[in-house]
Design brief:
The protein folds into 2 domains: about 160 residues, Beta-Lactamase, CATH 3.30.450; about 60 residues, Arc Repressor Mutant, subunit A (Orthogonal Bundle). The C terminus is likely disordered. By secondary structure, the protein is of the alpha+beta class. Helices cover about 55% and strands about 15% of the residues.
């Protein structure tokens, strides 16, 4: 095994802090390096979407991608079982008798694959997908290779979850900033209305809020409209309806 490439792969899979982090490119790196480092003919990754449904995320070859799609469309195969159980699933000879997934085994054989190892992409109890290794020859994968493959899947999982949580934090931060910006506009409108009508701030806020509710508008939009108009009446005059 190329130890330098293995070291570089772990470094690359751990580096999800870059500003232009690309999930698809990241997953293709995982599948391509899995083939180069391990005794695999091809590799694929399936990930769960927000609804928990599996999707093909990356594959090292067209044949592997089509086989992954076949598993999902027919609801049978080692990657689905791996995802559902959170445990590795081995198919050492897809051409042998008494197959657990007969339709998948036939499709795999037609694609030139005779053995599969599905490894969970899991962090503690959270399973987000599976890394699937395909071989052209029947027989088990080397245990040392499988340990490395699982380590690659684990590092990739941590990286993906980290990137996902970072995006969530960024979304929350954006929402918080928007809320703070809205609050500034509302405070400005309160002050302007309180001064215009010689009322206290609490009463001004209640008037803005009541008007927003009665007209089915966002409070921030009502406040911004009132602040932006140089000569503002409140409540604004009702719009004339066009003649019927």
């Amino acid at each position: 095994m190329d130890t330098e490439l293995l070291s570089d792969t772990f470094v690359d899979l751990a580096d999800t802090m870059v500003a232009d982090f690309d999930v698809i490119d990241f997953l293709h790196l995982l599948t391509d390096r899995s083939v180069r480092l391990l005794a695999a003919s091809a590799a694929g990754v399936v990930l769960a979407d927000p609804r928990g449904e599996l999707r093909v995320a990356a594959a090292s070859s067209e044949e592997a991608e089509l086989l992954e799609l076949f598993q999902l469309q027919n609801d049978q195969g080692p990657c689905l079982e791996c995802f559902r159980t959170g445990r590795p699933v081995t198919a050492r000879d897809l051409t042998g008798p008494l197959q657990r997934w007969p339709r998948f085994a036939d499709a795999a054989a037609q694609s030139g694959f005779r053995a599969v190892e599905a490894l969970p992409m899991r962090l503690r109890d959270q399973v987000i997908g599976a890394l699937n290794l395909f071989r052209a020859e029947p027989g088990p994968f080397d245990p040392a290779d499988l340990r490395i493959a699982q380590a690659l899947a684990d590092v990739a999982t941590i990286g993906l979850l980290h990137a996902r949580n970072l995006r969530r934090r960024e979304t929350v931060a954006e929402q918080l900033q928007a809320a703070l910006n809205s609050r500034v506009v509302i405070e400005q409108a309160k002050g302007k209305l309180a001064e215009r009508l010689s009322i206290d701030m609490d009463r001004a806020f209640q008037m803005l809020r009541d008007y927003a509710r009665n007209t089915n508008q966002h409070l921030t939009d009502v406040a911004r409209d009132f602040v932006d108009r140089a000569t503002a009446e409140f409540p604004p005059p009702a719009r004339r309806q066009p003649p019927g």
